[in-house]
Amino acid sequence: MRLKLTIAYDGQPYSGWQIQPNSRTIQACIEEALAEVAKTPVQLYGSGRTDTGVHANAQVAHFDAPASVDMNPFNWVPALNTKLPPSIRIMSCEEVSDDFHARFSAQKKTYSYELSLAPVLHPHKAARCWHLPRQLDPASLEQAMEHYLGEHDFRAFAAFRGNETEQTEYRRSIYTSRVEILPEGYRLVFTGNGFLYKMVRLMVGAAVQCAQGRLRLDDHLYLLERGQDQKGRKSPLCAPADGLTLEEVIYESRNKSHNSEIIF
Q1: Could you say which of 32, 66, 96 is where a domain stops?
Q2: What DSSP assignment string belongs to 64-79?
Q3: pLDDT one-digit tens code per residue, 178-187
Q4: Would 262 be classed as within a structural domain?
Q5: Which CATH number do you get for residue 246?
Q6: Core-most of 27, 146, 175, 248, by most CB within 10 Å?
Q7: In this structure, are residues 239 and 130 in contact, taking their beta carbons and an 8 Å threshold?
Q8: Looking at the structure, do residues 148 and 242 belong to the same domain, yes or no?
Q9: How many domains does the chain have?
């Protein structure tokens, strides 16, 4: 039985999603819980990585339940949550088809990023937003966000891991890029068919610099139109991880073939 988990977590105490040597990660915690419940090692496959300090309301992962475990999907939720720290919670578990893959079956993802303009950051907001105690120009912020809509070469909005090649694809499509007004700030929302390493944080950083008057809007648009110019200019600022939350992973209907070419 292949099972799909929807997972929420506070990313602050962890070194991101993916298992790493000598680091506490969300994937490692859940695999440890799975092994305790199943009495055997179980491999977990996530929809993609989130970095150190990044949060999730609906990360998605899947695993194949060992044949030795006779338990319905609903019962996996409390069984795992009793083994997990309070900062990680399995929100739901459902059976899926054997060809479902948390990463390769995904079609879109939605991220949000919260900006706080409060003069003093409330302690409940610590590690949950980017504190910018100065006014931003809302019109410039809106215009910068509108620039991201559509398909672009996001090379200038990607951090490099060191494993890039000439065949690395940097084109992504952004379907939603909007500003939501909060009582003391803004929430920036992005939905796209894939996001490069640190892409959302670099997009947010550039949009904020436009709203602060530190980056011209035409220079911002130039980075999207040219991907990256010959001088290698990139997005000028990577926003902190604190304000970033994975909100949703969107999957295709089951009667369509899975697209294994989408890379998150």
Answers
A1: 96
A2: EPPTT----HHHHHHH
A3: 999 999 999 9
A4: no
A5: 3.30.70.660
A6: 27
A7: yes
A8: yes
A9: 2
What residues are labeled active site?
Answer: 51
Both tokens of residue 183? Answer: 């009582």
Which domain range does residue 142 map to? Answer: 107-251
Rounded-to-integer distance, Cα 115 and Cα 188, Å: 8
Q: In a 10 Å sphere around its CB, with 0-12 CB exposed, 13-18 middle and 19+ buried, how is residue 184 labelled?
A: middle
Give me the residue label for tokens 């398909």: 151
Per-residue model confidence as pLDDT tens digits over 82-125: 999 999 999 999 999 999 999 999 999 999 999 999 999 999 99
Q: Which long-range contacts (CB under 8 A, 24 or more apart) does 131-140 make?
A: 132/185, 132/208, 134/212, 136/186, 136/208, 136/211, 136/212, 137/211, 137/212, 137/213, 138/179, 138/186, 138/211, 140/210, 140/211, 140/213, 140/217
Side chain identity at residue 140, one-letter code: S
- Angle (nearest 5°) at CA 263 between 127 and 196: 45
* CA distances from residue 225 to 81, 90, 148, 220 in whole angstroms, order as listed: 46, 41, 10, 9
pLDDT at 110: 98
Q: Which two tokens stand for residue 4?
A: 């799909």
How far, in Å, CA of 139 to CA of 141, rounded?
5
Q: What pLDDT does residue 27 have?
A: 98
